[in-house]
Amino acid sequence: MENRNETDLNKVQLRKDFETGDYDRGASSVKIFLWYLVSVVFIRSGIIPFSVIIEAILKLFGAKIGRDVRIKPGIYIKAPWKLSIDDHSWLADCYIENLAYVRIGKNVCVSQDAMLLTGNHNYKSVNFDLITKEIVLEEGSWIGARAVVCPGVTAGSHSILTVGSIATKNLDAFGIYQGNPAVRVRERVLSSK
């Protein structure tokens, strides 16, 4: 007996070109191409070790960056024109696939190899439609090394997504989240010491 998925595939041919719906690249083809070149040569290569120069390049391409921000060499940013980073935040060599806007608040830390993913596809559609949703990292939140933040997620104020965890839903303020999918494991308690 043929299984259901094989039968369905025989009836419906998946399209080779997926639908982007109302997706807006946010920049001209020329700007996107120039960003790709500059990003590969100067940002992702790690050739520029100084955060202030990386920030200046990102601002030239439309990123909004606050005061005293630190951005490490090797970072991947898909579209700087869809990125805002508020004061005193720190981004390691992470991966920001911002097909939709990514908003990073004050005093946020995004650790090594973390991924912020704003796009996905509708796997139920024969058109494999592109779905994009913005990500918001509120003040004081911390995204651990190799953690993944999925489309549409808001990391509440001072929340933590621990190392290697995957956030598929919003993180409550002051919550510490762990696992795949990430679940709240305890409260973050801050002290002045």
From TrEMBL:
<feature type="transmembrane region" description="Helical">
    <location>
        <begin position="33"/>
        <end position="58"/>
    </location>
</feature>
<protein>
    <submittedName>
        <fullName>Colanic acid biosynthesis acetyltransferase WcaF</fullName>
    </submittedName>
</protein>
<keyword id="KW-0812">Transmembrane</keyword>
<dbReference type="InterPro" id="IPR051159">
    <property type="entry name" value="Hexapeptide_acetyltransf"/>
</dbReference>
<keyword id="KW-0472">Membrane</keyword>
<dbReference type="GO" id="GO:0005829">
    <property type="term" value="C:cytosol"/>
</dbReference>
<dbReference type="InterPro" id="IPR011004">
    <property type="entry name" value="Trimer_LpxA-like_sf"/>
</dbReference>
<dbReference type="GO" id="GO:0008374">
    <property type="term" value="F:O-acyltransferase activity"/>
</dbReference>
<keyword id="KW-1133">Transmembrane helix</keyword>
<comment type="similarity">
    <text>Belongs to the transferase hexapeptide repeat family.</text>
</comment>
<keyword id="KW-0808">Transferase</keyword>
